[in-house]
Protein: Alpha-ketoglutarate-dependent dioxygenase AlkB
Amino acid sequence: MPLRLPNINGFAASELRGMRVFGGLLDAEAQERVVADLRDVTAAAPLFSPVTPSGKAMSVRMTSAGRFGWVSDSRGYRYSETHPDGVAWPAIPQSVRNIWDAVSGTAREPECCLINFYGPEAKMGMHQDRDETDFTQPVVSVSLGDDALFRVGNRTRGGKTESIWLRSGDVVVMGGEARLLFHGVDRIAEGTSTLLKSAGRINLTLRVVS
Ligand SMILES: O=C(O)CCC(=O)C(=O)O
Ligand SMILES: [Fe+2]
Structure:
């Protein structure tokens, strides 16, 4: 996929190793709309604490919206059409789909909106997003709530990395050459945002799965 640098509503993307970073793409009202819509999602598909295949509890809590949700347990990491409780995932809210439409640069629709909730102590180790079928399709990440120190590495594990703080309303497109870069979250800066009722951060990742 060619690397496009769109200018959306006056927002020029900055770049981090080919990831496009739209700083402050969502204004306060847009952020509040998304958070309100996410409350409906988590009411139908509650946040759960995933366990890695090796049996370690992840520090983030998660749930999903869309046809597929991402799950992890002793059987491995995978996409599933049902929540661990057995229910279908709720639809991806329109407020979230609008973000995808603005920045993804693809005609495909997102099939999964993974919702990660980071408490003040949560982090996410360096990983690639590679449970999807088509790596020409981007992953779009939306940050809400407290700031997060986001680290980007290389296409193989290890090597030099670069970090940026992601703030509430920032949107990152991991596409093209940057689609398979290792990335993770080292820490959350507690109390840097008042968007959420409690301290912490929500990150959404929108994905084409099939
Ligand atoms: O929280 C973030 O900014 C990144 C989340 C992520 O990499 C993932 O869910 O795969
Ligand atoms: Fe990821």
About this structure: The chain has a mean pLDDT of 94. The two ends are 17 Å apart (CA to CA). The longest helix spans residues 28-44. The chain has two helices and 15 strands.
